[in-house]
Amino acid sequence: MSFLKADFRVQCNTSNWTLFALAALPLIMVYPIGIPMFFGVLLRNNRDRLQEPFIRAQLGFLYAGYRKQAWWFELVDLIHKLIVTSLLAFLTTEGQLTTAIVVIVIYLIIILRVHPYQRKEDDALHMYSQVELFLFVLAGYVFYKLDQAQYSARDDIIISISLIGVTIGFLALFVYQALYAAYRQINKMINRYNRNKLKKQKKAAAAGGGAGSAGSAAGGDAAADEHKSAPGTAHQKKPSQPFALEMAGRPITASNKPGTANKQNDNSMSEASESDSSDTARGDKKTAPPQSAKPPATAASAAPSNAASPPGAVPPKSAGANDREPSVSRSESASVSQSVAGDDTKS
User: Fold this and answer.
1) pLDDT tens figures, 216-251
2) Residue 212: what pLDDT?
3) Treating both helix axes as pointing N-terminal to C-terminal, what angle do 53-63 and 35-45 enclose, rounded to 10 degrees?
């Protein structure tokens, strides 16, 4: 006759015990074995599409905290928990302790080799928890192997205080990492908010600068237009002559048609140029002294045109003579005129 260790009121190998055992067998196959196997098949079939949004929405809770190369680590963790919490119960007390130590050490080595988590803080916390479990199991193995007479109360107090300190240290590390993760997340949110705010300010400044430059350009154009429209401006655009005549109420005639003034200006300019050229050609006459005025012709002087001139008299200038006359002084011209008049009177 045997009894259940958890409850000595329950006798084993009875009809009631067999009924509960048969009902628990499917549940054992579903939860401790079926669920890890189901997750493993899903992850393995979709291992090349784990970064797709649809797959992440379905299976992201199994690998979101791990690195891409360690997508399978959740399965290892499930197996480790299953062994430590469930399978060890089917072994003896000494077998439970030794098996637990071996499983914990192997799992700790895997963590040290793989570094599965994305954050180093998670790797450190997980290793710390495995060290804590190892110390607890080791302390239980020591207490199990040694008789109560072989260790004193002081040793018991020291070991107990050490284990309590390790537990408190684990809790402190967990709280610190949780607060640090919250601080980093809040700081990231603040930085994101500041970046977005700075971007908005830059956009607003750029929009304001563009509007200001456009306004200044418009103001400059308006000022230029005002300057052009101001009277006395050098580059003022004058209205056309017909428009000015029409505004003044004067009729448009042939003399004030557009282009007539220009033609007159061209003619005046050509005449001026011709006068300049003639003045240049007669430059030698400008340097000569002025000639005396010829006496007015009379009938008496015009009649004896063929009379002989007295000796010493200057013959009159013929009509076909050269235009250039020699330079004669005023006294000589006066004496010649008097002699010619005297000869005419005698005749």
Assistant:
1) 655 666 565 655 555 554 444 454 555 444 555 555
2) 59
3) 140
Structure token pair of residue 219: 């103001």
Confidence of residue 8 (pLDDT cuts 50, 70, 90): confident
Residue 111 tokens read as 């963590």
Q: Which amino acid is at 188?
A: K
Q: Which residues of 311-337 are buried (b: 16+ CB within 10 A; e: fewer)?
A: eeeeeeeeeeeeeeeeeeeeeebeebe
Q: How confident is the model at residue 154 (pLDDT cuts 50, 70, 90)?
A: confident
> Can you tell me the distance from the alpha carbon of 99 to that of 106, in angstroms, rounded to the nearest whole number?
11
64/119 Cα distance (integer angstroms): 11
**Residue 258 and residue 256: Cα distance in Å, rounded?**
6
Confidence of residue 24 (pLDDT cuts 50, 70, 90): confident
**C-alpha–C-alpha distance, residues 335 and 313, integer Å:** 9
Whole-prediction pTM value? 0.54
> Do residues 44 and 87 make contact, with C-beta atoms less than 8 angstroms apart?
no
How far, in Å, CA of 148 to CA of 131, rounded?
26
SS3 label, residue 117? strand
Output the pLDDT for position 102: 94
> Closest by alpha carbon to 171, among 222, 113, 128?
128
Sign of CA dihedral 164, 169, 174, 176: positive
Describe the crossing of helices 153-229 and 120-145 by its angle, rounded to 10 degrees.
170
What mean pLDDT is predicted for residues 306-314?
45
